[in-house]
Design brief:
alpha/beta, two-stranded antiparallel sheet, 10 strands
């Protein structure tokens, strides 16, 4: 068989079918025998897929060099599985971790397997259930020696852009693939939070019906905001259960699996202001405090919500504000990847990453084509906000952006992502921030020293403030 897939859950199971549909033979295995039997009976009938009854059986059925893809939950289970597989395989065989592993774990696993002559790939796979089945975005990194062996298969099963380019290419050494997938997920958190705040503004401030909100998102999805997340929001808002929008019956507490948190932790480690994504992670944490919020709602009050302007114009402003806020989210994500590349010695192709995200993944959108073009023009671009295209968009939409944020704040509408996007922009464009006072304070209480505007950078001074 061409490849083994371990894990027959939603992602692993559908990925195996995708591989078989692209004329590769697959042997699957799952420690949960009931799940495996159910999968074979109901998911793969007529496909070029067989089931192994043990890890050894899976390994024995593979052609050399063996390629084994692990589609299991991130964490300890991956390490345990690797240790079980090692005695069964040979030098030159390839292990591919397609789960949402932390890139630091991938760094360690790659180094560990290098010593044993096993080629290790840590790859991000994005697209959810549908993407895994029909073509996800795939972001491989790890041991470059394995790339030519797995490239034909991974690019065959990946999503394709309109011109047929695979949404899969080599990202970089060690944990680079999983790092890029982690940043993808962080941007996904930001996109989703911005859309949720947009929904709340439409519902609570403008009092639009669900049918009207559906039409707004439908219109946006036909323009420059076209994306997978706008598309599914359009559909969600129209979906009814017993004549009532199903969204009304969904509890307002959001879950998370850790990738957003890891993105923010990495930004802190690297000193990158990932403010919008950070607020999006904290927004989910606040949503989980449901009981406390219910109590607080009975005690704490805010302004009366009352919109008196032109609704049609405000909806147009809201779409503009959503667009430029998305620009900030992506800009911060790419700055983080650039900082990581410098820190870890990776040679990341940022235009190529934008291309990999153009299809199959959760954040796929027409918007990413402009990001790819920006990095093609200037590969070492410091920040997307500095490109001519996005700079012009922000200048054009800035009044709309400020109107949406100020109107929402004045009406007590919760908009952590929108407001953090705007304040990041204002901070980034500011020639002189009040950090001079902050440095004086640090020097006053801790003698931490400071630099001076009238002296060369790198010289530090201390004042005896007392």
């Amino acid at each position: 068989m061409d490849i083994g897939v371990i894990g027959t859950g939603v992602m692993g199971g559908n990925l195996a079918i995708n591989i078989a549909n692209n004329n590769y033979s697959v042997v699957v295995y799952d420690k949960n025998k009931t799940s495996l039997e159910k999968y074979i009976q109901h998911k793969t009938l007529g496909k070029n897929i067989i089931a192994a009854n043990s890890l050894k059986d899976l390994v024995d059925r593979l052609k050399s060099p063996r390629k084994i893809m692990l589609m299991v939950p991130a964490g300890k289970i991956v390490d345990e599985l690797i240790d079980e597989i090692i005695p069964l395989i040979e030098r030159g065989d390839i292990l591919i971790d397609g789960g949402n592993s932390n890139f630091q774990d991938t760094n360690k696993r790659k180094a560990y397997l290098d010593e044993k002559g096993i080629l290790y790939i840590g790859t991000g796979v994005s697209g959810g259930e549908e993407g895994a089945l029909k073509g996800p975005s795939i972001m491989p990194g790890g041991n470059i020696k394995a790339w030519e062996e797995v490239r034909p298969l991974l690019q065959a099963i990946s999503a394709k852009t309109d011109d047929g380019t695979p949404c899969c290419d080599w990202v970089g050494e060690d944990g680079a693939g999983h790092f890029v997938k982690m940043v993808h997920n962080g941007i996904e958190y930001g996109d989703m939070q911005l859309i949720c705040e947009t929904y709340q503004i439409l519902k609570d401030l403008l009092n639009l019906s669900y049918e009207e909100m559906h039409e707004v998102f439908k219109t946006w999805n036909e323009g420059e905001l076209e994306s997978y997340l706008i598309e599914i929001t359009r559909d969600i808002l129209k979906f009814s259960e017993n004549g009532k929008p199903i969204i009304e019956n969904i509890l307002d507490t959001a879950g998370q699996k850790g990738t957003g948190k890891w993105t923010v932790i990495s930004s802190l480690d690297l000193g990158v202001p990932l403010t919008l994504i950070g607020e999006s992670v904290f927004a989910r944490a606040l949503s989980s405090q449901k009981e406390e919020r219910v109590k607080a709602s009975k005690v704490l009050s805010g302004p009366k919500i009352e919109f008196t302007g032109d609704k049609a114009q405000f909806i147009n402003d809201l779409g503009n504000a959503l667009y430029v806020s998305k620009v900030v989210s992506y800009a911060q994500g790419f700055v983080l990847m650039k900082a990581a590349a410098k820190e870890y010695g990776w040679n990341l192709n940022y235009g190529g990453i934008a291309l990999m995200w153009r299809g199959g993944c959760i954040i796929r959108s027409s918007f990413l084509g402009k990001i790819k073009e920006a990095f093609e023009i200037e590969p070492d671009l410091d920040n997307l906000l500095l490109t001519t295209y996005f700079k012009n968009k922000i200048e054009k939409y800035q009044t709309s952006w400020r109107n949406v944020v100020s109107t929402a704040v004045n009406n007590g509408i919760w908009i952590p992502a929108f407001s953090s996007a705007l304040t990041y922009f204002d901070g980034y464009r500011n020639f002189r921030l009040p950090a001079n006072l902050l440095q004086a304070q640090r020097d006053y209480f801790g003698a931490h020293t400071y630099e001076r505007v009238d002296k060369p950078r790198g010289q530090f001074f201390h004042t005896n403030w007392l």
